[in-house]
Design a protein that fits this description.
This protein is α+β, with helices and mostly antiparallel strands. A 7-stranded antiparallel sheet has the order 3-2-1-4-5-6-7. A hairpin with an 8-residue loop joins strand 1 and strand 2. It is globular and about 85 Å long. It starts with a helix and ends in a 12-residue tail after the last helix.
Length: 539
């Protein structure tokens, strides 16, 4: 090769980033929002904004939850109880019932019931509207949608591998990687976009490497199954039993009725052993002689996603098995990799830092795509000045940039607006909210393909700015907690006020970008006919 090693890495960096950048942008945006998926779900259920949950100990909350489940979940095959914590003051009760003969199937969750209850009384706080909330965004960032989850994970994994190659090759390409962290020259055309790309990449470089690598590791058994298949001769159950020991296995119902042992003593025993609080309680075959009760410790004590659990006999209360207290090295490492990716261990400040780093990742991907378009348009400047059209590749990339960079905020805004405007009693309401997300995004992408121009950038950025900036007002008009009352009077959940403030700031950022893309003066346009207006360089 005539080119040197660094030049070869520059070529690899450019194309490994460009080919998958639009899917990566969606993954980064959805994944960044997922750090606050609980808060997003709360915002999307305004019926719960005024509900005040009492503060009680985990033992008392478990006792009350057991009594409530015995009253409401008669005949259920499994109970799921999430005790109150820092980010969720209410008790989450869930149970599943077996399908009755002749009953019409309503999907995987057709016989699953869920409600939020006051930890002190067990009374239902209110009946919130059905929504996937932040869980949709969380699943979107690695499962995608409207396709098999396996296919979605393969696509995301393929793009993540390209992302990892792009990061490593970008590090090799940079001669002044640390100096680039402090260098930004505004209003310099291509140089400004390069500086913006470098700053957002280098500023959060450790995060970008960590989040990409751990994202691949979380699904390593899907991407690289050959080792397990060869070592265990295709017996996946034997592998998981050895890699993740401790569970006694799912028991079958005995068909003999037996009272369920009280939860409170089991919670006390588990918390004394762990030195931490219990977060989840699950019960198999409640009311049966073979019932089992599993307690799981709350996260936040370490980086691992694998929290210890204890399994008890549901009738006698005898300890049957423990899991996660002393994991094998491989399982412990895998738990830390997953924990780093999802950041459940992080407190408010660390979670905010992860969120800001995720936004930097979104900006890095977006500016990289814009930089390619700016460079290519300048290479074609003479042909464009002679009246020729831009190449098909350039026009396609510019249109995809508009549809992704400006279109994804429109999709997010449409999702939140649909949550408040669709009828509360609508059937399959969560699906309709998600359809509005993809419908708005598809419309933005199609319109961008028709005319990828400077005016199109302004129009879509302004649309996204309006949808996001108006969300706090929409929240008040549709029964949500008042932002001013939460900030100044202490009324309403802080998470709702924080959501309103974040979307307002993001919307103002889009509005500023739209303003900076105001039409060029006529004289300037005539003096510089080759100005790459469609790539936002003039901003």
């Amino acid at each position: 090769m005539k080119e040197g090693f660094r030049q070869s890495m520059a070529w690899l960096h450019t194309w490994s980033g460009l080919l998958v950048c639009w899917i990566l942008l969606l993954v980064f945006c959805a994944g960044t929002a997922s750090y606050y998926r609980n808060e997003i779900t709360l915002w999307m259920q305004p019926e719960l904004h005024g509900a005040a949950a009492s503060q009680v100990s985990t033992e008392e909350a478990a006792r009350v939850a057991q009594h409530a489940m015995q009253e409401r979940a008669t005949g259920a095959t499994r109970w799921f109880i999430s005790l109150p914590g820092e980010r969720n003051p209410a008790t989450q009760l869930g149970w599943s019932k077996p399908s009755q003969p002749g009953e019409k199937k309503r999907g995987r969750r057709g016989n699953f019931h869920s409600e939020k209850a006051d930890p002190a009384t067990g009374e239902v706080l209110s009946k919130p509207r059905e929504t996937r909330g932040g869980e949709f965004l969380y699943r979107l960032h690695f499962d995608l949608h409207y396709m098999s989850a396996i296919w979605g994970r393969w696509i995301v994994g393929f793009c993540a591998m390209f992302m990892f190659v792009s990061i490593i090759s970008g590090i090799v390409t940079h001669k002044r990687i640390f100096k680039d962290l402090f260098t930004f020259r505004p209003k310099k055309g291509q140089r400004s976009w390069l500086d913006a790309h470098n700053v957002t990449a280098v500023l959060a470089l450790p995060y970008h490497i960590m989040i990409t690598y751990t994202g691949l590791v979380t699904l390593m058994f899907l991407y690289m199954p050959s080792g397990v298949t060869a070592a265990y001769k295709g017996d996946q159950d034997a592998f998981f039993a050895e890699a993740f020991p401790g569970r006694s296995g799912d028991s079958k119902p005995a068909g003999v009725a037996a009272p369920l042992t009280p939860f409170a003593p089991l919670v006390r025993q588990a918390e004394q052993q762990w030195g931490g609080k219990v977060e989840r309680i699950s019960v198999n075959h409640p009311g049966d002689a073979n019932a089992t009760i599993t307690l799981t410790r709350a996260g936040g004590r370490d980086m691992s996603s694998k929290q210890p659990s204890m399994e008890f006999d549901g009738v006698s209360g005898k300890l049957l098995a423990t899991d996660g207290d002393a994991l094998p090295g491989a399982a412990a490492t895998q738990g830390v990799m997953v924990g780093l990716h999802v950041a459940h261990f992080g407190g408010p400040l660390l979670r905010a830092l992860f969120f800001l780093s995720g936004l930097a990742g979104c900006a890095m991907v977006a500016t990289g795509a814009l930089l390619w378009a700016v460079k290519t348009r300048q290479k074609q400047a003479k042909a464009l000045a002679a009246g020729k059209r831009a190449s098909f590749g350039l026009r396609l990339v510019e249109a995809l940039n508009i549809g992704a960079i400006a279109g994804i905020p429109i999709a997010f805004g449409a999702y939140f607006w649909a949550n408040r405007l669709l009828p509360v009693a609508m059937e399959e309401r969560p699906k309709e909210e998600i359809a509005c997300f993809f419908g708005a995004w598809a419309l933005a992408a199609i319109i961008a393909q028709l005319r990828p121009s400077r005016a199109m950038w302004r129009m879509q950025l302004a649309a996204g700015a309006f949808l996001l900036c108006a969300l706090p007002v929409l929240n008040v008009l549709t029964g949500g907690a008042h932002l001013g009352a939460t900030l100044f009077l202490g009324r309403g959940p802080v998470a709702v006020a924080a959501f309103d403030l974040v979307v307002l700031v993001l919307g103002l950022g889009l509005a500023y970008a739209a303003f900076k893309l105001k039409p060029l003066p006529v004289k300037a346009a005539k003096a510089a006919p080759v100005k790459p207006a469609t790539t936002m360089e003039a901003a």
